[in-house]
Amino acid sequence: MPRRQILLFLLCVGPFQIAAPHNAQAQRGHTQRSQQQLAESPKRKSPIPADSIESFQLPPKTAFDKAMPRYPNAWFYVDKRLAKSYLAAVKLVTNNLRSTMRLRESYGPFDNPEGCDFEVTLEHLQPWLVREHRALQHGHAFHMRYYYSALERGKLEIVKLPTKNGERDYYRFGASVHYEVEHYNPNHADVEICPICGRTGEYADLKGNLVELVHDPLGLELVMTGKIRGQVVRFEDQSQRAVGSVDGLKEKFVVQQFLFPAQSGDRNTLRIGIVVLNHK
Ligand SMILES: [Zn+2]
Ligand SMILES: [Zn+2]
Ligand SMILES: [Zn+2]
């Protein structure tokens, strides 16, 4: 399988560089392997030498509620020594992300739960206002659903990862993250021609489901890098503060980030990002 040929990406190396998102290309395995160690980070701070998505032993989609439409595209792995329980490991990530990105958490009942445990949103980002498309104008929403209880029920919540010091246990859980027309806009969720959330730019030639191929990778880009299409996303208020990303967890943890092409088998989303938290 071409999954072995992976674009692996340890973040902090600069802009979110990824292969052109052409499914056929990814499936032919043309994506050149590129493994970059952090320039700023000595070797001892890169505990997981993973060079393949297979290292992370992702569970099958059938492990989750049938109501979940898309395979989770963001995965968090937490060194088991960092948390007293699985739920504590989940909260370690979600609480820190909530505060660093100022996320609004919702625990339901939801209009559209998609089988998740809970969800987080940010609204009114990057307003798209153009005179010739008045009826289509909209702000954007960052929207992420967390999935962990199904993994615990299936005893899939702990995996061993190879580290520089031998195998080690990690708690892990998934999230499905996307970027779209904000929820209170009549055009929610799809505006195909939007230069921000639409099938445009590097995504223009992709045929198929807009959410899997465009909204999902955009949401992943934002949570991994704080950017959309390479542009820093800022809150639309006086502060103009950057929204941020998992980068904010680096104050407390050694954070490794990986990005792999997906959209194959039961992984119906363009790319999968993996975030690993280790002891400082
Ligand atoms: Zn949504
Ligand atoms: Zn959507
Ligand atoms: Zn848009």
Which descriptors would you attach to this protein?
single chain; 8-stranded mixed beta sheet; binds zinc ion; disordered N terminus; 280 residues; 26% strand; two-stranded antiparallel ribbon; alpha+beta
Q: What is the percentage of strand-forming residues?
A: 25-35%
> Helicity level, as a percent range?
10-25%
* Silhouette: globular
N→C terminal distance: 35 Å
Radius of gyration: 18 Å
Number of helices: 4
**Mean pLDDT, all residues:** 86
Largest sheet: 8 strands, mixed
Provide the structure class. alpha+beta
- Strands, total number: 10
SSE topology string = HEHEEEHEEHEEEE
Q: Domains counted in the coordinates: how many?
A: 1
Distinct bound molecules? zinc ion
Weakly predicted, low-confidence segments? 1-44
At a glance:
With 280 residues, the protein is an alpha+beta fold.
Topology:
Blueprint lengths: L22 H6 L45 E6 L6 H16 L2 E3 L11 E11 L9 E10 L1 H5 L4 E6 L2 E16 L28 H16 L1 E2 L2 E2 L21 E8 L9 E8 L2
Parallel strand pairs: 1-10
Antiparallel strand pairs: 1-6, 2-3, 3-4, 4-6, 5-6, 7-8, 9-10
The structure holds zinc ion (3 copies).
One zinc ion (ZN) binds next to strand 6.
What can you see in these coordinates?
The protein starts with 22 loop residues before the first helix and ends with a strand. It is built from four helices and ten strands. Strand 5 and strand 6 form a beta hairpin. It has one domain. Strands 1, 2, 3, 4, 5, 6, 9 and 10 form an eight-stranded mixed beta sheet that branches. By secondary structure, it is an alpha+beta fold. It binds zinc ion (3 copies). One zinc ion binds next to strand 4. The site of one zinc ion (ZN) has 9 residues, from strand 4.
